[in-house]
Amino acid sequence: MRIQVAAGAGQGPTELAAFDAALQAVGVSNYNLLRLSSVIPPGSLVTVLPQPLSPPGAWGDRLYVVAAEARTGVLWDHVWAGIGWIQDPHAGHGLFVEHEGHSEAKVRSDIELSLAALRKSRGAVGAAMGEAQIVTSGAVCTDQPVCALVVAVFATEPWGLSQRDLAAVTALAEPAVARR
Asked: pTM of the predicted model, to two decimals?
């Protein structure tokens, strides 16, 4: 699995509009975001992209993400969002954490503390994970609300029935057809 991480910020007349502008800056504004817990599956490759993402899929598809976002409409307030991760360099499995705050230093510190605790709680498996990686985004409210956003994109999925769903529906319908 390829997991792409990107960061951006946006501003708008409301905090929600600022969030949408941040989604546009990151390249994921036309998807329905489904937030995941922070487990990286085995065999995954996590990459950081400096430009906006361009996930496959169509308008309105499901987009599975780990996300950190911070919004404010308070004049001169700073917001920061960040995602950090550790990953076994051989097996590819790992853990993401996400934090938000009012300073980059605090967000980075919280990420490092969280990853250290998660690593420790997993014993030998955690000890085998590589160095922490961190991506942050920040914004300052100077005249309009702002939003800082970092996303780790796992996969897109359309809203149509999956092959598994189709098989289940077909299996349920077969006994009714056989009774006729």
From this structure: 0.87
Q: Choose which CATH entry (3.40.50.2300, 3.50.20.10, 3.50.50.60, 3.30.390.10) describes domain 2-179.
A: 3.50.20.10
Low-confidence ranges of the chain (pLDDT < 50): 176-177, 179-180
75 and 47 Cβ atoms separated by less than 8 Å: no
Structure tokens, 84: 């950090």
Which amino acid, 132? A
Contacts of 38 by beta carbon, 8 Å cutoff, 6+ apart: 66, 85, 95, 96, 97, 98
Residues 158-169 have pLDDT tens digits of: 987 666 665 665
Q: What is the pLDDT of residue 179?
A: 45
Tally Cβ neighbours within 10 Å of residue 33. 16
**Predicted pLDDT at 98:** 98
Beta strands in 36-164, from DSSP E residues, in sequence order: 39-40, 45-48, 62-72, 78-87, 94-101, 133-140, 146-157
d(CA 134, CA 63): 22
